[in-house]
């Protein structure tokens, strides 16, 4: 972990140097060139509650109509499909923090993300459990959040109180039960949430259970409006 922290200034410098596009290998280019962003992260109509792709003109999916999530809005920059899983894995699991800038730029350019950031009072990254944070060396959601809105980002307000077993394969009710009590608001700062507009940032949204559980905690603490902003959204189950 300490080695990763020591290398962070160098990885940030490398991220600003001319390089090949990681996807199409164009040179010189940003880490992901504009042509690849246009091709692999096109603007897509999505459900306003859970960010699943939807037909044009449909505001909410059936599940969000039947079970309204605790988010007022949910926005995603791209579908979790090639080339984004590999890019996110380099960032998240291989300690390549230089990916934070390019991925935050991709996220900021998604429809409605910029207005959400401008209108909110607080930007909160999805927290990691202490053990997971120590293992990884940094919180990828925090790295994204502080590049999206550094003056509004608060990393210590929403807390992860415990790690949880893998969510994959669990029914919706079990996923929510699995996450019960997994998030909390810092008690000494809870008053700062009352009546505030919040943007909640994460890297990948799969079932939405974690994001919804965190949003429900913020709602109980008095947040007036919560927008979930995620880099990538998985495909709907088939």
From TrEMBL:
Domain of life: Bacteria
Xref: InterPro entries: ComF/GntX_DNA_util-trans, PRTase-like, PRTase_dom
CDD domains in the record: PRTases_typeI
Phosphoribosyltransferase domain: residues covered: 136-232
Pfam families given in the database record: Pribosyltran
Family: Belongs to the ComF/GntX family.
Protein name listed in UniProt: ComF family protein
UniProt source species: Variovorax boronicumulans
Lineage, uppermost ranks: Bacteria, Pseudomonadati, Pseudomonadota, Betaproteobacteria, Burkholderiales
